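Quick one:
INPUT:
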């Protein structure tokens, strides 16, 4: 897996710099967004009514989305603060 390799490579680079006495690191906030998707059929007089009816059913727990309904995942990292130098 590419992500795992990149994380391991990054850790190894940082360990090298720790051994040298200095490692520059940032703190990140990473947001993980998963999208679940399910299509249901319903008879209604309009698309608005159909959405409203399914919304009510979903709210009442008629339609439960779980890992079988997984569609996509995304990761977004944002730096929280400026560089910090960690000295040994």
């Amino acid at each position: 897996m590419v992500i795992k390799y990149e994380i391991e490579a990054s850790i190894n680079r940082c360990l090298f710099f720790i051994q040298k006495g200095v490692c520059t690191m940032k703190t990140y906030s990473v947001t993980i967004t998963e999208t679940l998707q399910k299509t249901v059929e319903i008879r209604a007089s309009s698309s608005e009514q159909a959405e409203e009816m399914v919304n009510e059913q979903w709210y009442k727990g008629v339609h439960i989305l779980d890992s079988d309904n997984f569609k996509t995942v995304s990761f977004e990292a944002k730096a929280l603060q400026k560089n910090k130098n960690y000295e040994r």
